[in-house]
């Protein structure tokens, strides 16, 4: 059960009283997630999600509030946080920072179809188009600047072959990105796996869990998506899902020449980013709670495929 701080009904009732959201009918802990405590809250007027932040840098939470407010104002399918009667969204509950969100419709797609890939590509293209003007700033915590020092922490746990693979890749990325062309920047989700989306059939109900959100290369965000949404269990790219997602994305935000050039390398770097982060959780910094870590091997497999097979051709942008 991923509720690390239980709440009583009276605590939730007192919290809700600050908002114009109705009276408590029910509060249910959500058995999902790895870092925060989440509750489904039902009032006599609406369905809500209450999140208590258990880990992370709490001083960064205003960035996430501002980003979600901004995207919500631009009619993106995100859960814009509720603000209380004084216009404040971020509060404290049970000694933890807390936010209240509308509950968006749908469920996570386990095996996304082509229509779902198009819907996600369209929404991400729209998001990246408007996020370039977002005034907030939070450096990408998992980019090349993170890879350089952090990969040394896991080398001792790897086979000689994997040590060489990781060290060689980081050196290649450093040579490519450090002196390469500047890529378009903006606010990004930073972790847009399929379990951070909600679908009702083929319709995208929402993009959720922006707590890896930051500002950085838009292409970084897109590569994370492709390495999850358009990749099979063997690590190979699935041409139909790849084409559907990227064509829909580019109908909203065509990739620039520098991005098209960097695309195969960005797919490799984001695959290594998740291989490394999962290795760190297994060997170096296990979760504070009794949760099963994700298998690092899945992204080692993706990385090997990207090195051996490269990227599929990018579809051309269509007006």
Uncertain segments: none
Distance between the termini: 47 Å
The named CATH superfamily of the largest domain: Aminoglycoside phosphotransferase (APH), C-terminal lobe
The whole-angstrom Rg is 20 Å
Mean pLDDT: 94
Which CATH first-tier class of the largest domain would you pick? Answer: Alpha Beta
Sheet with most strands: strand arrangement? 1-2-3-5-4
Largest sheet: 5 strands, antiparallel
Shape: globular
Structural class call reads alpha+beta
Q: Could you say what the CATH topology of the largest domain is called?
A: Aminoglycoside 3'-phosphotransferase, Chain: A, domain 2
* Corresponding CATH architecture of the largest domain: Alpha-Beta Complex
Pathway: Amino-acid biosynthesis; L-threonine biosynthesis; L-threonine from L-aspartate: step 4/5
GO molecular function, one term: homoserine kinase activity
Pfam families: APH
EC number: 2.7.1.39
